[in-house]
Amino acid sequence: MRLTATALAMVLMAGAPAFAAGDAAAGDAAAGEKVFAKCATCHVIANDAGEVLGGKNAKTGPNLYGMPGRVAGTYPDFKYGESIVALGATGFVWDEASFVEYVADPAKFLKTKLGDTTAKSKMAFKLTKPDEAANVWAYISSLSPPVAPASN
To answer: Which of 42, 98, 105, 109 could serve as 60's disulfide partner, Cβ 3.0–4.6 Å?
Structure first.
C-alpha cells in the first residue's frame, strides 16, 4: 500500500507530542489579540517596567504578564480567591491546556483540580470556545517572557 505525502504527514503528526509548557503555543496570537478585548475589561498584560502591552490597565483581575509557567494564584499584589490560592499551594503551574480548560468554566475547573465541590472562582466570565482560548493563550504567551524549562 502506498501512502501519499499528505497521508504520511497526517500519520506523523498524529504521533507528535503535544505542546509542553514553554513550547510555542498552538493558537494564533494575532487572533488572540482580538479575542483578548473580551478579557481586557478585567485584565491587563503589563511588563515589569509597567508598560501596558495588552489591555487597558484594568485591575479587576490579575496582570497576565508572565502567566505562562507561573504558579496559579501568585501574582504579587493581587487579592486572589481562596480556591485559586489553594490550587497554587499544590504547585500547579499554568500551561496552555489548563488555561483553555480554566477559562471555559473557572469554578468547575477549580472544583475538579482541587477535588472540592465547594471551590469557587472570582472569575465569572467564561471563554467557552477552545480555539478562542488557545488564541488568547498564544497572545498572552507572545507578550510574556519565555517560560523557563522545568528543572528535574
So the answer is: 42
Give 5-50 pLDDT, tens digit per residue. Answer: 333 333 333 333 333 333 445 799 999 999 999 999 999 999 999 9
DSSP for 36-79 reads GGGTTTT-EEE-TT--EEEE----SS---TT-TTPBTT--TT--
DSSP one-letter code for 22: T
**Cell numbers given for 120:** 469557587
Three cell numbers at 138? 498564544
Q: Are 40 and 27 in contact (CB under 8 A)?
A: no
Amino acid at 65: Y
Cell numbers standing for residue 78: 493581587
Q: How many residues does the chain have?
A: 152
Long-range contacts for 115-122 (Cβ within 8 Å, ≥24 apart)? 116/83, 116/86, 119/83, 119/86, 120/81, 120/82, 120/83, 121/81, 121/83, 121/84, 122/61, 122/80, 122/81, 122/84
pLDDT band of residue 77 (cuts 50, 70, 90) is confident
